[in-house]
Design a protein that fits this description.
It is a single chain. The mean pLDDT is 97. The strands form two sheets. The protein has a seven-stranded parallel beta sheet, sandwiched between helices. A five-stranded parallel beta sheet has the order 2-1-3-4-5. Helix content is 31%, strand content 15%. The protein folds into two domains: 122 residues, 3-Layer(aba) Sandwich (Rossmann fold); 178 residues, Rossmann fold. The radius of gyration is 22 Å and the shape is globular. The protein is built from eleven helices and twelve strands. It is of the alpha/beta class and 319 residues long.
Length: 319
């Protein structure tokens, strides 16, 4: 009987082309699913006949209610070395080994700047007008040089975003609950004394915090009200850090200049979700980590993880 592996949410249909899925001495059968499963019953039904599942980022939760219903599952491989939607205790109780892969912070840094620049220079509006025979120039771009970039979070991703901002000639401020002046100075940023100060003084605010109970809802209606009417908000981190209803209200009422968003409270985003039609919003379908080099890393190390597991020496074990 072959060792059967399911690859979830392979939206672009590239998983089997970016890695060599052969396992010496073993018959490995790989099935790629290009559509997202809408509920646990659909997921369990689809995965019932698999020994291994490869899941991308935190797109698909694996709580006990799923793991308890997959008796054949033995190996779960997640991209990245941290995953908040896998119940590790339930995996262990069901004899499921959970492994991860390395992940580069470069793609989300680059996407953050794609969104920020797209907003600042009205690229969507201008491109649409040019293609559809609309007006020749209808927006006045926002300058970056000399403006303040405020970063909520100055970790691995935030610090790299900061350095790009400095290269554009921006003033960079940062804030997080544990950020020190010394750490901020290491990347050329100034530590804001408070979240409120950072929000009220910045021309561009970018979110780079991990989601936790401390950061959930960190930017709500009161915080958004502190932003300048000419300010832009960018979130490539986690949707729940920014109150989605409050953000929609700020965009609809024109209380901020715009927002660039790559993460949503429900993914994939339903066709009738209000984020799809919100004004002043530049949105992408959670592309933060989606790049060829990163996908090659994910899938090649997933295969490496399968090979290691089958030899009895699993690598990059999580939980």
């Amino acid at each position: 009987m072959p060792f059967r592996c399911a690859v979830l949410d392979d939206y672009q249909g590239v998983a089997t082309t970016l890695a060599d899925w052969s396992v010496p001495g073993e018959e490995l059968e790989v099935v790629s699913f290009t559509e997202h499963f809408g509920n646990e019953d659909e997921l369990v039904s689809a995965l019932a006949g698999f020994d291994c599942v490869v899941t991308l980022r935190e797109r698909v939760p694996f709580p006990a209610t799923v793991l308890d219903r997959l008796p054949r599952l033995r190996l779960l491989i997640a991209s990245g070395m941290r995953n908040s939607v896998i119940d590790y205790a339930a995996a262990k109780a069901n004899g499921v080994t959970v492994c991860g892969t390395e992940s580069s912070s470069t793609p989300p840094v680059e996407l953050t700047w794609a969104l920020l620049l797209g907003l600042a220079r009205g690229l969507v509006e201008e491109n649409t007008a040019l293609r559809e025979g609309g007006p020749w120039q209808s927006t006045v771009g926002a300058d970056l040089h000399g403006r303040r970039l405020g970063l909520l979070g100055l970790g691995k991703i935030g610090s790299r975003v900061a350095r790009v901002g400095l290269a554009f000639g921006m003033e960079v401020s940062a804030w997080s609950q544990n950020l020190t002046e010394e750490r901020a100075a290491e990347v050329g940023a100034r530590r804001a004394s408070s979240r409120e100060e950072l929000l009220s003084e910045s021309d561009f605010v970018s979110v780079h915090l991990a989601l936790s109970e401390r950061t959930r809802g960190l930017v709500g209606a009161d915080e958004l009200a502190l932003l300048k009417p000419t300010a832009y908000l960018i979130n490539t981190s986690r949707a729940a850090i920014v109150d989605q209803d409050a953000l929609l209200a700020a965009l609809r009422e024109g209380r901020i200049a715009g927002a660039g968003v790559d993460v949503f409270d429900v993914e994939p985003l339903p066709a009738d979700h209000p984020m799809r039609t919100a004004p002043r919003l530049l949105a992408t379908p959670h592309l933060g980590y989606v790049s060829r080099a990163n996908y090659e890393r994910y899938y090649r190390q997933a295969v490496e993880g399968i090979r290691a597991y089958l030899t009895g020496a699993p690598v990059r074990v999580l939980g």
